[in-house]
From TrEMBL:
Taxonomic classification: Bacteria, Bacillati, Bacillota, Bacilli, Bacillales
Keywords on record: Endonuclease, Hydrolase, Nuclease
Ranges for domain Endoribonuclease YicC-like C-terminal: 175-295
Protein name, per record: UPF0701 protein YloC
GO molecular function, one term: RNA endonuclease activity
Highest taxon above the source species: Bacteria
Domain Endoribonuclease YicC-like N-terminal, residue spans: 2-155
Sequence similarity: Belongs to the YicC/YloC family.
C-alpha cells in the first residue's frame, strides 16, 4: 500500500491519576530519521521507542513527544537540607546574642541558598507507568500510519494519472516519427531534383542510403521502448497489492525516464518532437515532486 511520508498521530493513556501523552509527527525525508523528546526520567526509554517507531515507519523524518501529567512517578521533589538549616539557626542565634537583634521570622530562612534542593525522579520511579507509555507510543504510531495511508491513497491516484499521461504522450510521439521521415524524404527528393540537370535521373540507391542514415540517426524506438518499460514498472509499483515501500524505487525509475527523454530530445531534430519532449519532461518533473512525499 502506498503511504505518504506526512502524518500525525496522538494518543493519551491513563495510569491512575497519571495522564500519558504521546504525539508523533512525520514529514518527507530521503532516509529514516527520528528525534525523541521526553522528560528526563523517561529518556531511558529512547531505544525502545525508536524500535517501536521503526517497526511502523521505514522512511521519513519523525519527531516524537512524550509527557506525563498528574503523576508523582516522574515529578521532581523539593527536599529540605536540614543540616544547612541547623547551621543557619546556630548562626542566627549567635547574631542575636552578639547584636541583640531578634531573628525569629522563618520566612527569612526560605530565601537563603542551600535550604532547599530539587530532586529529580529516577528511572525506577518511572518504570511504574512504563507499560502505559509504550502503549501510548504504539497507538500514536498506528494513528500516524492510518493518516499516511489515507493521504497515500490519494497520491497514488494522482501518480497513476500522471504515468498514464506520459504514456499517451510517448505513444503520440512514436506515431509522429514516420511523418518526420516522410517529410525528410520529400524535402530530400525536392532538393536533389532541383540540383540535378533535367536530363539526369535521381539515383534511387543513393537517395535510399541518405534516408537510411537519417532514419538511423533519428531513431528513437529503443528509447521509447525503455521509457514505456519504466512507466509500466511505475504502474506495477503503484498497484494496491504492493506492500513494501516504493518511493525510492520509483525515484530511481524517474531518473532513468529523464535520461531516455533527454536522449530523444537530442536525436529529434524537429519542432514537434521538441514539443513532445517538453510535455513529457514537465509531467516527469511533476511525477518526481510527488514521489518525494511517498515512503
Amino acid at each position: 500500500m502506498i503511504k505518504s511520508m506526512t502524518g500525525f498521530g496522538l494518543s493519551e493513556k491513563y495510569a491512575g491519576s497519571a495522564q500519558v501523552h504521546s504525539e508523533i509527527k512525520s514529514v518527507n525525508h530521503r532516509y529514516f530519521e527520528c528525534t525523541f523528546n521526553a522528560p528526563k526520567p523517561l529518556l531511558y526509554l529512547e531505544d525502545q521507542v525508536r524500535k517501536i517507531i521503526r517497526f511502523y515507519v521505514h522512511r521519513g523524518s519523525l519527531s516524537l513527544f512524550l509527557s506525563v501529567a498528574g503523576s508523582s512517578a516522574i515529578a521532581s521533589r523539593v527536599e529540605t537540607n536540614w543540616d544547612v538549616v541547623d547551621q543557619y539557626i546556630r548562626a542566627a542565634k549567635k547574631i542575636e546574642k552578639r547584636s541583640g537583634l531578634s531573628i525569629s521570622d522563618a520566612n527569612a530562612f526560605l530565601q537563603l541558598p542551600g535550604v532547599f534542593s530539587l530532586r529529580e525522579a529516577d528511572n525506577q520511579s518511572a518504570k511504574v507507568i512504563e507499560p502505559f507509555i509504550l502503549e501510548a507510543v504504539h497507538e500514536s504510531c498506528e494513528r500516524l500510519i492510518r493518516m499516511r495511508e489515507k493521504e497515500g491513497a490519494a497520491m497514488r491516484l494522482d501518480l497513476l494519472q500522471r504515468v498514464q499521461t506520459i504514456h499517451h504522450a510517448v505513444d503520440a510521439l512514436e506515431a509522429f516519427v514516420p511523418q518526420i521521415h516522410a517529410q525528410y524524404e520529400q524535402r530530400l527528393r525536392s532538393s536533389v531534383a532541383a540540383f540535378l540537370e533535367k536530363n539526369q535521373a535521381i539515383d534511387e540507391d543513393r537517395l535510399m542510403n541518405e534516408m537510411a542514415l537519417f532514419i538511423n540517426k533519428t531513431a528513437i524506438n529503443e528509447e521509447t521502448t525503455r521509457l514505456k518499460s519504466h512507466l509500466q514498472q511505475c504502474s506495477d509499483l503503484l498497484s494496491e497489492d504492493e506492500q513494501e515501500p516504493v518511493g525510492r524505487r520509483i525515484d530511481f525509475l524517474i531518473q532513468e525516464m529523464n535520461r531516455e527523454v533527454n536522449t530523444i530530445g537530442s536525436k529529434g531534430n524537429h519542432a514537434e518532437v521538441t514539443r513532445f519532449v517538453v510535455t513529457i519532461k514537465n509531467e516527469i518533473e511533476r511525477l518526481r515532486e510527488q514521489v518525494q512525499n511517498i515512503e
